[in-house]
Amino acid sequence: MRAWMPLISVEVPIEIGSSVYGLGAHSVSGIDRSESRSRRRTSPRTRPPYPPRARREGWWGKLQARIALNALALRPGGSGVQTYIRELLGCLGDEVDAALVAAVQRDALGELPAGVRPLPRRQTSGVARALDGLRSLGRADIVHGLDVDIPLRVGGASVATVHDLAVFDTPWAFSAVRARGEQALVRRVLRRVDAVIAVSDFTAGRVADLFGRRAVVTPLAPSPDLAPPPPAEVDRVRHRYHLPNRFVLHVGTVEPRKDVGGLGGACREVGVPLVLAGALVKRAEVPQGAIHLGWVPRRDLAPLYGSATLVAYPSLYEGFGLPPLEAMACGAPVIASRVASLPEVLGEAACLVPTGDERHLGRAIGELLADGGRRGEMSRAGVRRAAGFTWKATAAATAQVYRSLGASL
Length: 409
Fold this sequence. Notes:
globular, single chain, Rossmann fold, six-stranded parallel beta sheet, 14 helices, alpha/beta, 2 domains
């Protein structure tokens, strides 16, 4: 049994410039609440703060605290989770006085920012990666699973970031094996971890509903290099990818819960080309007539957004929804579904439509294509909206979570 030596009394969780959800019911349209009722706990788990392990005072001076991070989900390029890991680690060093070490797959070592010491691991995916995530990260003041996973043996206070609970809320979008495996992993971690971070109010609410845990909300943000591109860059990308004069763009992994099929049908109805940028997963198909670019290099992303007449994101479920916010940062008008986290992230700067309604989506796309003035207003509003999200604020809020657990940083 672990011996506790608390230095101070700290109540977890705390509120850091955003919402912290308690145990009340959180309404999610169309989601089965049976899991919520069966898994609800009477109170959030709280534990005394760990004493700092790496920092010591004495005649030899002061040693730095140590923060160990599971960054095995970091991949070259990648999606919203990879962006979160890369950008958070890039800003975290400015917010804490600590040594940062991160477990990372060997082929993603180049993705780590300067100042973060790598703990190289083999290149894996799926079950093998989950098993690697169980390996110890050594003794540390804080152990943080950047995509939920934490080791079996934790050498310090533990934190887990939850990006979404899609395996519970939309299990049909995954293979049965993957859904059951990830559900078991999330349950194990959220029973044991000392503090939970969620990327949106919506996801924090689902954590409270399903597991009775409070979560501190630290939103994602567009990368600093995503801004309205110069015309020369737009022309370069148009030429490179042979883009049509006007088109609707969707950026993100092509998978069932993104409803890319419905978007393809809506675009065919209106008579406008659909361009897809992102990897194609199993059990997903490129809609008839769509142009699939595959994965797009980072340097081409802002001018690709800037080339689009309209960016559409009719997802059926999101834990945050970073691509449409990135599109706004680049000055693209955005149309998205009114579901899950998207309304809180995009606000009134986007045109929000009912989920899964292909005809309504088609009408909205047609109206926006015909109204250049409205698209211009949406472009300007989107840039202002996106400017309110920064990785510096996310890193500062994350550091405060660490301090709430007793870490001297």
